[in-house]
């Protein structure tokens, strides 16, 4: 009788552990899918990026409202070239870990919830950290012209 | 012996149900916290909203870049008054379920990942659905002036 009770108790404990493990796995998967607010979009092939990145154009600029909004997803190590915007740019970090650097300034580490206001005509780059993907919403006012693209961010600059 | 086995089996089944219920509750709480990219900010007391809503100013407009970005969280049934923007507005839905309506048009239901480009000087309102909170990022170009606030959205208009 005692032996049977012990076996039943062992069974229950095994069940609890199994369920908890299963639950933890489900949560992780679910959370990663849910965290990405916008679809990844299309692979960027403009030559203005190093590594693999994706753009989902959320809002195109037009004559009435010159503000363009795009969701950019960078795979680890992917980054923009150095560039500048004639009317500045705003970045909203929605997921992952990334970098942002203005010329002559140290590299900043960006995480979900961080925001950046990049001044007009200031050379800068942004992208994913070395080990983690990075997702940002870029808000760009194009009424003074489009971005001016410069040279690639070297590995030396990237890892500094 | 058979009776004891049956009791143990019943115990196990009860445990499974209990754990599943607990797990579902934990997941919901966790997901809601993770889904909110930006902090809720401060309760809005401008008189331009019906119900309870919160604003987190992410980026203020300035002379160089007239684009303002704010994260707005609406509790269920909360909504803006009817209003318009002299240079239009862009809304990015980051969580929850909400409504958007332009004057003379049917109400649109908005969910995470939806985007809205509201034209300049078009009367509109936005807010949460009746049962669910709603989180949006509002991108407003203030170079032609601030929002013009009109009358409240009546319950009749809201539920239509």
From TrEMBL, chains A, B:
Record key words, sorted: Signal
Gene3D superfamilies, A to Z: Jelly Rolls
Pfam families per UniProt: Cupin_2 (PF07883)
The keyword Translocase is annotated on this UniProt entry: no
Every Cupin type-2 domain range: 72-132
Segment forming the signal sequence: 1-26
Segments passing through the bilayer: none
InterPro entries: Cupin_2, HNL-like_cupin, RmlC-like_jellyroll, RmlC_Cupin_sf
PANTHER family assigned to the protein according to its UniProt record, in alphabetical order: BLL4564 PROTEIN, RIBD C-TERMINAL DOMAIN CONTAINING PROTEIN
Name by which UniProt lists this protein: Cupin domain protein
Lineage: Bacteria, Pseudomonadati, Bacteroidota, Flavobacteriia, Flavobacteriales
